[in-house]
């Protein structure tokens, strides 16, 4: 799985501003116990005005996908000299329709017509730099993020200004009603910066004012500026360091259209898994313009190839919970959580997974001002408990496609996988270093799959599988001593077990850097409970923004680095529930 990454996208080095690491405290709350009930009635189709059926119904009937987008948003969507709509998002729309096996029609929309066209069914999806916002109208929903844009400042190359933090007291140009104006005003207010804001009707007017030195800097979208500067041959300008705002883009559909959103997200994951998204990036944002590490790739869930459904196989009836978890929390009901309560390890230690999951859940509950009720015995089947209706939230789930019609996944917060340790100061970094010397790999006796995975990894770097041998251990101390005394070259196993052992025996063994066979961990929420899904995602994002997520990661997980979180636009409150620390 490609890990989502948010790095700056400037011609010069920029400093991302969307994460501010700070401190927060985790509430110590006493859980209550709720027995699970695993025999729920099957969900029945429930029309929800204004959506009675999925947009997939009309897509099938007409045999065509209609996507609305502005035709003046190059390089995302624009008309070329031949009258053809082209661009990064136009090509993604074409790839989606091709994957579905139907024709595509692109229709021009404006910010004044887009919403009405989507609600009326004139278009099925809305694209073209559509910012994912928590405060979006209540009838809208979004796909996985497909890009992250930035609002930045352009100045003359000979300007003494180097950073956006130096704009206090300067004359700054913005485009009337643009995202750049909104971002600059919000950022200035948050940072106590006073500037002389000059408003222009068109970007070309503002660029002319910058060239005439009537303003010290111009604020606008990074890629809109790139189009004018790079393709327009404008010389003698530079981008200041820093960003006023990052803006994740997604594909928009009507809220509660669970089948359409599921199909769109599955298709985006298929584009990633089959490497069809990379050429689109290469064409519109080549590596010389945007480093590959700055690209956004939707996370690929497990079992993607095992989902053979075609367009006509997805249900068109709208099914949603009778009552959102958000409504329950606002009414003062406890948050019923499945997946906690994992028994201690054989050595008596609480598992890393239990510690980290608990820390995240209780921090979220603290922010929401709700009590937590643990569903007893649910750590073995949290997904089933959630699907049965006996829990509101499940933790430690691996997002996969086989149960997608039972639960929804939200907020990927970690990865499980396998780790390896070797003798301290051996300088062994991975399986490539096993090409010489002993090839005895130690594993736990109760992890029979570990050696097979390790041998396959050795074969992948050119090692003869017949030369790779296995030594199995039941005792942790014996495993550590076997590696330290060179009786075993490396030890390989579940990272949740291997990492604590290596950390506790740092004078004898050392972890190698890579996490093997990573698989994501996410929260599970009731199927098509959109408000609660949004609440969970937004809360984890706020925890990342203020540093709480990283602190909890270091204290309770500490396997690799915290996963970068894309921060959606919006306030620190959602559906009347506080999400800020």
Spell out the blueprint of helices and strands.
Elements: E1 32-34, H1 55-62, E2 65-69, E3 72-73, E4 77-79, E5 85-86, H2 88-100, E6 104-108, H3 114-120, E7 125-126, E8 140-142, E9 147-156, E10 171-175, H4 179-191, E11 196-200, H5 203-211, E12 217-221, H6 222-231, E13 237-239, E14 245-249, E15 252-254, H7 258-273, H8 277-284, H9 325-330, E16 335-338, H10 352-368, E17 372-375, H11 382-388, E18 393-397, E19 407-423, E20 440-444, H12 448-460, E21 469-473, H13 476-484, E22 490-494, H14 495-504, E23 509-511, E24 516-526, H15 530-545, H16 548-556, E25 573-574, E26 577-578
Helix pairs in contact: 2-7, 10-16
Protein described:
α2 (88-100) packs across α7 and α10 (352-368) packs antiparallel against α16 (548-556). The longest helix is centred in the middle third of the chain and has 17 residues, at 352-368. Among the domains are: 55-146 and 250-313, D-Maltodextrin-Binding Protein, domain 2 (3-Layer(aba) Sandwich), CATH 3.40.190.10; 148-247, Periplasmic binding protein-like II (D-Maltodextrin-Binding Protein, domain 2); 417-517, Periplasmic binding protein-like II (D-Maltodextrin-Binding Protein, domain 2, 3-Layer(aba) Sandwich). Strands 1, 16, 17, 18, 19, 20, 21, 22, 23 and 24 form a 10-stranded mixed beta sheet that branches. It is of the alpha/beta class and 581 residues long. β25 and β26 form a beta hairpin. Residues 1-37 have low confidence and may be disordered.
């Amino acid at each position: 799985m490609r890990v989502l990454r948010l790095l700056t996208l400037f011609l010069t080095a920029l400093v991302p501003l969307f994460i501010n690491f700070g401190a927060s405290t985790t509430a110590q709350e006493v859980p209550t116990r709720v027995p699970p009930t695993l025999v729920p009635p099957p969900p029945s189709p429930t029309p929800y005005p204004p959506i009675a059926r999925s947009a997939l119904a009309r897509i099938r009937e007409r045999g065509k996908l209609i996507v609305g987008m502005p035709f003046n948003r190059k390089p995302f969507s624009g008309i070329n000299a031949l009258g053809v709509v082209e661009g990064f998002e136009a090509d993604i729309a074409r790839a989606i329709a091709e994957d579905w096996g139907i024709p595509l029609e692109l229709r021009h929309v404006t910010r004044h017509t887009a919403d009405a066209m989507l609600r009326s069914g004139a278009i099925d999806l809305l694209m073209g730099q559509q910012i994912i916002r928590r405060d979006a109208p209540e009838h809208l929903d979004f796909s996985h993020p497909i890009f992250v844009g930035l609002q930045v400042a352009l100045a003359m190359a000979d300007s003494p200004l180097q950073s956006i933090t130096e704009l206090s007291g300067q004359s700054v140009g913005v485009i009337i009603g643009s995202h750049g104006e909104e971002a600059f005003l919000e950022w200035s207010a948050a940072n106590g910066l006073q500037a002389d804001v000059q408003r222009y009707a068109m970007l070309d007017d503002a660029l002319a004012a910058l060239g005439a030195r009537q303003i010290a800097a111009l604020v606008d979208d990074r890629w809109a500026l790139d189009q004018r500067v790079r393709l327009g041959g404008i010389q003698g300008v530079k981008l200041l360091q820093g960003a006023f705002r990052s803006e994740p883009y997604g594909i928009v559909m009507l809220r509660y259209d669970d089948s359409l959103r599921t199909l769109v997200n599955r298709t985006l994951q298929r584009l990633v898994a089959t490497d069809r998204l990379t050429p689109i990036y290469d064409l519109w944002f080549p590596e010389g313009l945007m480093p590959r590490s700055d690209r956004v790739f939707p996370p690929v869930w497990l079992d993607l190839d095992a989902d053979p459904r075609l367009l006509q196989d997805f249900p068109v009836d709208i099914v949603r919970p009778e009552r959102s978890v958000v409504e329950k929390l606002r009414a003062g009901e406890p948050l019923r959580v499945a997946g906690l309560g994992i028994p201690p390890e054989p050595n008596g230690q609480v598992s890393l997974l239990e510690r980290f999951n608990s820390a995240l859940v209780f921090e979220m509950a603290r922010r929401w001002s709700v009590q937590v009720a643990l569903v007893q015995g649910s750590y073995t089947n949290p997904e089933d408990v959630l699907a049965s209706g006996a829990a509101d939230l499940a933790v430690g789930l691996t997002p996969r496609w086989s149960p997608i019609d039972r639960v929804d996944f939200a907020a990927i917060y970690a990865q499980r996988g396998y780790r390896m340790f070797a003798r301290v100061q051996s300088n062994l970094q991975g399986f490539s270093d096993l090409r010489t010397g002993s090839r005895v790999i130690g594993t736990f006796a109760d992890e029979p799959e570990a050696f097979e995975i390790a041998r396959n990894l050795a074969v992948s770097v050119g090692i003869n599988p017949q030369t790779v041998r296995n030594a199995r251990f039941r005792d942790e101390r014996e495993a550590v001593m076997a590696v330290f005394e060179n009786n075993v070259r490396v030890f390989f196993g579940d990272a949740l077990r291997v990492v604590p052992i290596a950390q506790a025996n740092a004078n004898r063994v050392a972890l190698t850097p890579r996490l093997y066979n990573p698989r994501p961990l996410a929260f599970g929420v009731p199927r098509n409970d959109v408000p609660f899904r949004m609440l969970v995602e937004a809360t984890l994002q706020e925890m990342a923004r203020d540093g709480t997520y990283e602190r909890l990661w270091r204290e309770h997980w500490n396997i690799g680095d915290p996963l970068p979180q894309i921060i959606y636009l919006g306030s620190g409150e959602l559906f009347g529930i506080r999400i800020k620390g």
